[in-house]
Specification:
Blueprint (H helix, E strand, L loop, with lengths): L7 E5 L6 H15 L4 E4 L3 H18 L1 H4 L13 E3 L5 E5 L13 E5 L8 H6 L3 H5 L4 E6 L13 H8 L1 E8 L8 E2 L4 E3 L5 E5 L12 H4 L4 E3 L6 E2 L3 H10 L1 E4 L7 H5 L14 H6 L2 E5 L8 H16 L4 H10 L6 H7 L4 E3 L12 E8 L4 E9 L4 E10 L1 H10 L7 E4 L10 H8 L2 E6 L4 E5 L2 E5 L5 E3 L13 E7 H13 L3 E4 L5 H12 L2 E7 L4 E7 L5 H15 L13 H14 L1
Parallel strand pairs: 1-6, 1-14, 2-4, 2-5, 5-6, 7-14, 15-25, 16-19, 18-25, 19-20, 20-24
Antiparallel strand pairs: 3-4, 7-8, 7-13, 9-10, 10-11, 11-12, 16-17, 17-18, 21-22, 23-24, 26-27
Helix pairs in contact: 11-12, 16-18
Bound molecules: zinc ion (ZN).
Zinc ion binds next to loops.
């Protein structure tokens, strides 16, 4: 803030993070050292009044060089305006900005801008025009993250202003002398292999799946991302972190939630570019830290686990507030849902044998006459590993992929929703190559009649697709066709991702296709609505246009269900002896 080349300083900080103290100290400094008209603007009229009386004016009175500038005429000394004897005025305002009579402002401090209505920041900053022209102005914005309800995150004034600055992240040194590496003291981070670091606790859960908070909280500690050294919450840790702490210049994507859940976002869409010259020329600085450095960790874990339990009941608000207020990260509901997707990554070789492997499937989704998305995965009894994902042109190219990945012909599942019929239809290709046609259905389960019993499964009994139906060729040949419940398979895939059994290779040879994959996988999200009247939670899946990888994942998982590598989700509620009996009947039924 004392750097004459900088026009703006943004402080994105947690609640109770000492942010307003920065402004409280900056003002008396400017009044004495480099004076100019100064304006403090608070989020509400009341906050302005309270802060002015209880903090700012008291600091003025106790700061000798400022007190010496107090006007001798008491009329010049008002609660919201002081004309100092050096000729410069200090103004205190709420969001109405009030009566400024066209006066120019050199220093502008804006508090809790996350809750300012859109456009208000611009209105206040219009006052500094003359000083901006002379390049002597300074804007200080201090706030938690946003946005406010109903404002699109990336369009919010605070988000845009913050991301125009050169972003600085607070980092501290590991207390393990063998390690001594630096990391960001954040609530939670993820290593490349999918494991978590940061604040950690033993995972105790109640029978209903809720976190057992009183049992979890005492095990709280902070794990170093590099050496896993457990840091305890005590004055020594926080003192050492304070001593070694420093700001590092962060890449623009570091704190961008869009980039986290959606790595495909092009750089040009991000609010700022990461060009080298920016580092030199940028006249705007942004700073960020999280509450981990100065808030009791057990309290934080309790807040977080409460928020996780609320989320299970369809209430995302506490989680949203945790991100915005405690972690000081920009988040809205959409970014929260997308950010929930964490793949487990493993260092496996795609072409080497996996001893536990029990089967592999190739799933295909037709997009255009000649364009297809495909995904090949290997399966063990507990896990699934991605072997490949991409685009292919023509049925022959897909058959080559089948051979390349050594998938049996009847382990190829192709979606038959688009162009199933005719000589170049999906059914004809299934007949030619021996693949299986499949179709996602709205039904939640399908009734199978096994002997005299009826059971529910997540896929329909085998039916037959007719490539020539309606034409001269109709009724001559049929290919196998299996309908499945989209809702059940969506849920099953999500469960596998959430419990870490949906694995992705650690070192992808095709980073572009890898990020396309991650984007498509994140494009279908599970949403819950809590219906207060009935006390029930309604679950539904929000689909996007570009979420083909999710359909491919569903089809691949259908293969695993058909091969008994994964339990059928529609049957999971049946007791084990009952299921065993059904399975026994199933075998004899053929
Ligand atoms: Zn360490």
């Amino acid at each position: 803030m004392q750097n004459d080349h900088k026009r703006e300083t943004n402080v994105l900080k947690p609640v109770r993070g000492g942010g307003s103290l920065i402004g409280d100290v900056f003002c008396p400094w400017t009044l004495v050292v480099d004076p100019g008209p100064y304006m403090d603007v608070f989020q509400t009229e009341q906050a302005a009044k309270d802060h002015g009386q209880e903090r700012i004016q008291k600091i003025f009175a106790r700061c000798k060089p400022v007190a010496a500038l107090f006007p001798t005429d008491a009329h010049e000394l008002r609660n919201d305006e002081i004309l100092f004897s050096n000729g410069h005025t200090w103004y205190l305002r709420g969001p109405a900005l009030g009566n400024l009579q066209g006066k120019g402002i050199r220093y502008l401090r804006e508090e809790e801008v996350w809750m300012w209505s859109q456009g208000k920041m611009g209105e206040a900053e219009g006052r500094i025009g003359d000083y901006l022209k002379m390049q002597t102005s300074k804007v200080l914005r201090v706030s938690q993250a946003g946005p406010m309800d109903g404002v699109p995150m990336e369009e919010s004034d605070w988000y845009r202003a913050y991301h125009k600055g050169l972003i600085h992240e607070w980092e501290v040194q590991c207390l393990n002398p063998e390690c001594g590496k630096y990391f960001d003291p954040i609530f939670s981070g993820q290593r490349l292999d999918g494991s978590f670091w940061g604040i950690t606790w033993n995972r105790y859960q109640l029978p209903n799946g809720d976190w057992n908070i009183p049992k979890c909280v005492p095990s709280t500690h902070f794990e170093c991302p590099h050496c896993r050294h457990p840091h305890l919450d005590n004055p020594r840790t926080k003192g050492e972190w304070n001593r070694t702490g420093r700001y590092r210049i962060a890449k623009s994507e570091d704190r961008n939630p869009k980039a986290e859940g959606d790595p495909q976002v092009a750089d040009s869409q991000l609010p700022i570019a990461d060009r080298q010259e920016d580092l030199v020329e940028r006249k705007k600085d942004s700073f960020h830290w999280e509450t981990v450095i100065d808030f009791p960790w057990d309290e934080l874990v309790e807040l977080w686990l409460d928020a996780c339990n609320a989320e299970k009941r369809g209430d995302l608000k506490p989680k949203l507030q945790f991100f915005q207020k405690r972690r000081a990260m920009f988040r809205d509901l959409e970014s929260l849902l997308k950010g929930g997707l964490h793949f487990r990554r493993s260092a496996y070789e795609i072409h080497s044998d996996w001893p536990e492997e029990k089967g592999r499937f190739l799933s295909i989704d037709r997009q255009e006459e000649d364009m297809f998305w495909w995904m090949a995965r290997a399966w063990s009894l507990e896990k699934s590993r991605k072997l490949g994902f991409g685009k292919a042109y023509g049925f022959a190219a897909l058959e080559e992929l089948r051979l390349k990945f050594k998938v049996e012909a009847n382990h190829v599942f192709i979606d038959s929703n688009f162009l199933p019929k005719g000589d170049h239809g999906v059914y004809a290709a299934c007949l030619k190559y021996g693949w299986i046609a499949v179709r996602g259905d709205k039904a939640y389960s399908f009734t199978h009649r096994i002997r005299k019993r009826y059971v529910q499964k997540s896929y329909a009994p085998l039916s037959w697709g007719d490539p020539g139906s309606g034409g001269a060729m109709g009724g001559r040949k049929y290919c196998p066709l299996i309908a499945f419940s989209k809702a059940q398979l969506n849920q099953k895939v999500q469960e596998m991702i959430d419990n870490g059994s949906w694995e992705e290779p650690l070192n992808s040879t095709e980073p572009e296709m890898e990020s396309e994959y991650a984007q498509q996988m994140a494009a279908r999200v599970r949403k819950t609505d809590y219906v207060a009247r009935t006390g029930e939670t309604r679950v539904f899946w929000k689909e996007s246009r570009n979420d083909h990888a999710r359909d491919l994942a569903n089809m691949n998982t259908l293969g695993a269900i058909l091969s008994d590598l994964v339990p059928d989700p529609a049957m999971e509620r049946i007791t084990a002896p009952e299921a065993a009996r059904i399975e026994a009947v199933d075998v004899r039924a053929d």
